Amino acid sequence: MRARLAGLTRGRCVMALLVLAGIMWLIASRQWVHVDAAASAVPGVAGTGGERGEGNPLATACAAIAAVGALLLAMLGRVGRWAVSAIVALAGLGCAAAAVQGLAAPAGTPTAWPWAALAVGALTAAGGAAAGIASGAWQRSNRYDRPAEQGPVREDPADDPTTAWDALTRGEDPS
């Protein structure tokens, strides 16, 4: 399985999870249940009309967790990437659970958005798991590391600001 995920680089994984988190956020902000006001009206109480809910707060929170987790994958070491991948996968499962709850709404007719949330939640969970598996092969960035064979860094006395000021005081040009 790890050989199949060898082409899943850090950048591709982060971008895919960010796109999935954005889609999850968009789906979470839509109306998931349509309530018929006449059917749910209590006798003697005026109905408020048509639509209930502007979205699903659990799915919105899961989308935010997935987005932050995707960004953290780009910055952390191996153990941190595994932990964050598990959290992103759990966020995807949380969105899928919210979708199942939206489909089983007792008072109203579910729209198509819970089905879309179920699919995106499952894809995000799979993406988080794939990131955890593939992250073992990602190389650590050593762009800013000093090569070991250089030894300790010796400071040049000319780089010391105190020396430069003393030279100016004596009338010398420190440059």
How would you briefly describe this protein structure?
This is Trp biosynthesis protein. The protein has 175 residues and is mainly alpha-helical. It has helices spanning 10-28, 57-73, 78-103, 113-134, 161-169; strands spanning 33-34, 51-52, 109-110.
Q: State the end-to-end CA separation.
A: 61 Å
How many H/I helices? 5
Sequence of secondary-structure elements: HEEHHEHH
Percentage of β-strand residues: under 5%
Number of strands: 3
Q: Helix amount, in percent?
A: 40-55%
InterPro entries: Trp_biosyn_TM_oprn/chp (IPR019051)
Protein name: Trp biosynthesis protein
Keywords: Membrane, Transmembrane, Transmembrane helix
How would you sum up this structure, described in words?
- This protein is mostly helical and 175 residues long.
- It has one domain.
- 53% of the residues lie in helices and 3% in strands.
- It has helices spanning 10-28, 57-73, 78-103, 113-134, 161-169, and strands at residues 33-34, 51-52, 109-110.
- A three-stranded antiparallel beta sheet has the order 2-1-3, with no helix packed on it.
- Helix 1 (10-28) runs antiparallel to helix 2, helix 1 (10-28) packs antiparallel against helix 4 (113-134) and helix 2 runs antiparallel to helix 3 (78-103).
- Residues 46-52 have low confidence and may be disordered.
Outline the fold blueprint.
Blueprint: H1 10-28, E1 33-34, E2 51-52, H2 57-73, H3 78-103, E3 109-110, H4 113-134, H5 161-169
Antiparallel strand pairs: 1-2, 1-3
